[in-house]
Design goal:
The complex is a heterodimer. Chain A is an alpha/beta fold. Chain A contains 13 helices and 14 strands. In chain A, helix 1 packs across helix 8 (144-156) and helix 9 (202-215) packs across helix 13. A five-stranded parallel sheet of chain B has the order 1-2-3-5-4, sandwiched between helices. The chains are: A alpha/beta, B alpha/beta.
Chain lengths: 318, 278
């Protein structure tokens, strides 16, 4: 895969499982009747003895995976983010996070894009929930390259991991050699007029926005938070001190996600102007993904406009 | 230490000792689930002193039988059994529920020796048992590992129990033994007044379990039934319906939901210890 290729995270995740299957013989895959959607189907076909179809019963799936993890296995539990983070929340909390077991959660269909399914399948609160969970690592890859790298990274993190992937196709922005480090934000564009902190599939949009901003003479720093927990506080503080204004962009509610994490860090250490871009506090509705993203200013043009608004506020303040 | 095979009368003596420790523990802590702990005392004694295999207290064997207290609130009974079995000193029971103790209100596998899995939020243990036995099926080193999951009767009102039962029955998960501590009393009322569980045996049978029934306080019958369950589980999941009495052994606690999560005061403690006997 090359930069600019349009690839969905879920396909990259499915491929990653196949790629690393031999390297991690203790790795197993559990799915809840959505293997064709989460793309664990390839692993199921290639390694039927390492694949467990658990039916439409997410709570039981988490418990069974935890039991496997007790015995030395590293199970991937794969279903839609909305079912993992909400329906099976208590099971994840008790049997995975509190027990601190190496269960890896593939939260597919994270955020909005769910193929026009509508409010019940859009998972816009899951980062907030998982971020508040002790022992949990929360990863939000930007593109297919990072999804593959983070699937492997998750296997090397000792405890529970929540890997949030999305359904829709997203442009590849990283070189194939990209190796993310857990807990470190990646600075993808330099600048000190303003900083943009983005996560997951919003990062390609934010990257496109920085290029548009550059043409307007605005030098925007882009920090990609591929890890939301543990949170890279230092990068946020540095951005605050050097840029003086931060726009956060996330495929999530503006409550409790990346924007929340940035504000928590800055309020304690280095307050500055912050504007959070994401879904407002309402349930989503059916519709074309791009139209919905555009409505909430989450596409490249929307991000450009919100940066300009933020800079106008910054100038007023100065 | 590995446990030598104890006779029924020796096991009965152990169960009495567990009950005395339960009362001492909750009295000392001034809290804890006394009723359920007395209800499960004979079941735990039978399991830990006789039925479960390869439970060395010094080394955690890979091929040991596992136990999950899915009804993860009745820890005084659980910890008393583990202490008596030699996993940690009896005096540790005095620290139950205190800040910094290895004996948490709910079982914590990272803090308490002998605890195979953390629990506390009801309804989750049978699923974990499924996972352990699925692991055993693909892990030669786990040998003849069986998993015993003790559930409360009120607990099986939780939906996840039936997700697990459906899966275990459909896939004929081997080596899995569920036990229902069927004392008929839950936190706020009798089970029949909350949500009736009957016909309980038919329900488990319909989900694909072999169902065994026993008096949960008759040590001879209990041991025989649990050993039979262990053996029969080679062919698929088994559930033991253990007919018990909440607060068993203390007349003023027996069958009373008020004793679900309460500790005896000084006077009640003295009376209770007298009733249990030396």
């Amino acid at each position: 895969m090359n930069k600019g290729d349009m690839i969905a995270h879920r396909n990259a995740f499915g491929q990653a499982l196949l790629d690393i299957a031999d390297a991690y013989p203790q790795m197993l895959v559990f799915d809840a009747d959505v293997c064709a959607s989460t793309q664990t189907l390839g692993f199921k076909k290639a390694h039927p003895d390492r694949f467990y179809e658990m039916g439409i019963a997410e709570a039981n799936m988490i418990g069974a995976a935890a039991g496997m993890a007790l015995c030395g296995y590293t199970p991937w539990v794969s279903t839609f983010a909305v079912f993992l983070a909400k329906r099976a929340l208590d099971q994840i909390r008790i049997c995975v996070a509190h027990a601190n077991l190496p269960v890896k959660l593939n939260a597919s269909y994270g955020g909005l894009p769910t193929g026009r399914a509508g409010a019940t399948h859009s998972s816009v609160e899951d980062i907030a929930v998982m971020r508040a969970m002790p022992n949990m690592t929360v990863l939000t890859p930007a593109d297919a390259v990072e999804t593959i790298a983070m699937t492997d990274l998750a296997m090397r993190i000792p405890g529970p991991v929540y890997l949030r992937t999305v359904r829709c196709e997203v442009p590849v922005i990283f070189d194939r050699s990209w190796r993310p480090v857990a807990g470190q934000a990646a600075q993808l564009a330099d600048g000190d007029d303003v900083a943009i902190c983005s996560e997951g599939m919003m990062t390609p949009n934010a990257l496109a926005a920085t290029e548009k901003l550059a043409r307007l003479g605005i030098r925007a720093r882009l920090l990609h938070y591929g890890t939301i927990k543990p949170f890279d506080t230092d990068a946020a503080i540095k951005a605050s001190r050097e840029c003086g204004a931060i726009l956060t962009v996330e495929n999530h509610s503006v409550i409790g996600g990346l924007g929340g994490a940035v504000c928590e860090a800055l309020a304690e250490h280095a307050p500055c102007l912050v504007k959070r871009v994401g879904f407002p506090d309402v349930f989503m509705e059916s519709g074309d993904d791009n139209e919905i993203f555009a409505r909430f200013g989450m596409d490249a043009d929307g991000i450009v406009k919100q940066v300009q608004d933020l800079l106008a506020r910054k100038r007023l303040r100065n | 230490m590995p446990c030598s095979v104890l006779s029924v009368s020796e096991l009965e003596a152990r169960a009495k000792a567990v009950r005395r420790l339960v009362l001492k523990t909750t009295h000392h802590a001034r809290m804890g689930h006394t009723g359920g702990s007395l209800s499960e005392a004979d079941i735990l004694t039978a399991l830990f002193f006789r039925v479960m295999k390869n439970r060395d207290t010094e080394a955690e064997r890979v091929d040991r039988d596992r136990f999950i207290l899915s009804k993860g609130h009745s820890t005084p009974g659980y910890y008393s059994t583990l202490a008596l079995r030699g996993y940690f000193p009896l005096e540790t029971l005095d620290t139950f529920d205190a800040l910094g103790s290895i004996l948490q209100g709910h079982p914590d596998m990272h803090k308490t020796p002998g605890v195979d899995m953390s629990s506390g939020s009801l309804g989750q243990g049978l699923s974990v048992g499924i996972g352990i036995q699925l692991a055993a099926a693909r892990t030669p080193a786990m040998g003849d590992c069986h998993t015993f999951v003790l559930m409360g009767d009120g607990e099986i009102q939780e939906g996840q129990v039936w997700e697990a039962a459906l899966y275990a029955g459909a896939r004929k998960v081997r080596g899995l033994v569920g036990i229902v501590d069927y004392n008929g009393v839950q936190l706020a009322s009798n089970t029949i007044e909350a949500v009736n569980l009957e016909p309980i045996a038919d329900k488990w049978r319909a989900f694909g379990f072999t169902v065994l029934d026993t008096d949960g306080h008759d040590m001879g019958s209990l041991v025989e039934t649990l050993e039979k369950a262990r053996e029969l589980s080679a062919g698929g999941p088994v559930v033991v319906i253990a007919r018990t009495v909440k607060g068993k052994g203390v007349s003023f606690m027996e069958g009373k939901h008020e004793w679900h999560g309460k500790a005896p005061n000084d006077k009640e403690f003295a009376l209770a210890m007298e009733e249990i006997g030396a």
